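Workshop exercise sheet. Pairs work together: one partner reads the sequence aloud, the other fills in the structure field after running the prediction. Swap roles for the next sheet.
Pair: D.N. / O.F.
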Amino acid sequence: MKLNMQQKQASEFEMGIASVIAVPGSGKTVTMTRRIGNLVKKGVSPENILGLTFTRNAAEAMRNKLKPVLGDQAIRVSLLTIHAFCLRILKDENRRFEILYGKEQLRFIRQIKKKKKINLPSGLLAREISLAKSNLITVSEFRNLYGEDQTMQAIADVYEAYDQEKQQKLLLDFDDLLVESYQLLSQKIIRERYQQAYLHILVDEFQDINPAQLEILKHLVSRKGQSSFWICGDDWQSIYAFTGASLANILKFKEIFPNSKQYILNINYRSTPQILKVCQNLIEHNTNKVEKHLRPNKAGGDDVIVMDCTNEEDEVTQIVNEILEIIERGYQYTDIAILYRANFQSRVLEEILSKYNIPYRIENGTNFFNRFEVKILIDYLRLIQSPDSEDGDEALCSLINVPNRYLGKKFIRELKTYSEAHQLHLYDGLKKMPVKLPYLKKNIRELIGLIDPLIKSASDMTPAEILHLLRDTLDYDQFITEDDVPSPDDLKIANIDQLQFVANKYADIESLLNYTDSFKDDHGNDENGVSLMTIHKAKGLEFPVVFVTGMVKGILPNKNGDVEEERRIAFVALSRAMKLLYVSWFQNYMGKSAQKSPFIPEMFNSVDG
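Structure field:
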């Protein structure tokens, strides 16, 4: 591929520090790999080059693009995520530890807060501790920062105990990889060793780095002799503030590195002029940005279509009609993506796409009714509907320990053995099986005390009423948010609110279960279907046809989000489209009046009018 003038200049940058601000679809990965090739051709050893990305997939994709440039030498270049690089540093420096992550990390935090008698969600504690570490804020600094705020001081107590216990057990979490590496690189002798080892450093998606990562990079940058530090990113696509990413890192790059050179890649090879125009108009309404102008490489194209809808069902019905027409025009289902701000929005999409037999797949996700917090409530309804059936047996095994009743796999095996020996279904077996431990007997008695009355009165109650009672009695909302690390595009409460909303449409449990069961098996997993995904999942992807849905106030922009970040999220969504772009909004949402997103009029009106 022949590079354009901007790409060529950026790829041929030699020594010193440079930032490359690359708009969507401008070929930044090609430019970055070509730069690595240029360095090697000029005599730089591949082992002296370090390329840092933010996901393993991105690192692998970059290596694949590097192979045609460097051939067998491509494998000698270090292409890693920042966390993987920090792990390498710690291993090279003979640090002994194991990684604490995921469910084990949340369980670890849960045990600490229990000892401390602190009643805050484990997910919230994990996020606050992570944000502190990603800003290199120590426990004592955290305490001073929040003064008299009792909640934050309680978090500080957990933070302190969490670090102490990890240290005793030789454990590090992912944020510790950054903190520990930063501390090691603060030592001159170690820092100079890595500066000498990696004379040429390249960083992709620089807008997504957090302050701790920036400080590590600053330590690695050598200001002496034949070395370079080259970063690539786009402030307009900075959408990870909730993980600790700092937009200021790219906006203030010239202040951080005063003698640095800046290149702007603003020729877009992806989208039509009409699509780029609405993208430009929208992002111009942000104040905090690097000024640049999207230049299309393509000519011609269709106008961007705004779909005004009555409600979310009407929105998807209109989308279906457009899809059917698009397919007739020669497009494939795989050419089409439907994007949304948060996962809970997929429920109506799945329902109506299934109704019209349009194949779809949920990108890196689970179909709505198989999401844990939704499936458990459905299993409660299934047990209430059919306690003496195989479906009831399966449902009981799923829900018996949700919320935690200390009835784990061992107990379920014993229950199955007892029930088979006495020719009973599991729920009947649960009521009759002798149990010695008093606390287990109590928990079983409470579960039966909840389910039995609901079995008897199920015919007199609507599914919505039963769900409301279950949520209230089990304190279910509190349970599902306990270990939920807050994320704006995956809100578990919103998911069960959607289930509650659906339940209102059915008079009895059987009818509701018939509806939810229609989404089992392969739904949401058709590789030849339309792609459904959140906007965050879509970052870095492109599709000939894109529908951006749910553009109403409160969803996009999110009611709790920073408006400039939300505008960048909308920009990322719009800029995924190559040929056809649709945006849609609805006047009523979940039975209540909704307002059009302010981003829609902004898309068609530039700041200059």
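Discussion prompt: The two ends are 38 Å apart (CA to CA). What would you look at next?
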